[in-house]
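ok trying this again, last paste got cut off
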Amino acid sequence: MQAVHDGYEAVAIKSDTDAVVACFTRRARGDRLQMKVMRGDVHLGIAMSGVSADSKVVFDHLRALCVEYHTMLGARYPLRRLAFRMGLRMGASTLRPDQPPLKVGMLMISYDELGPHVFQVMPSGETFNCKAMMLGARSESVRCYLECNLKRFKSASRNVLVSHALHALSCAIPADQMLNIDVGFVGEERTFVLLPQGHVRRYMQTFNDC
């Protein structure tokens, strides 16, 4: 669990019509950014916090489940079932004496016939259905922002919801690093969209409207 608390700052929130996930990224070798918000499937976006090697293991397993489900049933894996399936996989790693537990937490967003969803999956296997959630270092300041603004998320437009996610992360991230953020959203179109880095600046300009 400590690896998750010390990892990348990430946040996921939902309104009545959309779900947004955002995560701080750090520069890797060659001045490249390590991408931590990823498309798990057409309808699914995820952010991870923790050990990078374990993140790859978890992501590869998630992708395999999504491909298998779509191949067999011709449909997308419902997020509720997928989140609990991933929780079982991650929790099982804590019980195996022949390998260390997976040290990564995950935020997942999707949209189905019931609307937008946010789920959190922890290394212990615990899985939570959330309205808003965060992971990573300095997450308490992010939690404070989410709790203070929770009622405002429900009716927020997509643009305002993205701005709320960025504003929440700004409580934990220095201002000069705020452009090093990945943001993705999913709405009624049921297609997860990862925003280009250049679009973040435009959304940050709406902070004062939140």
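PB: full thing came through this time. The first strand starts at residue 10 and ends at 14.
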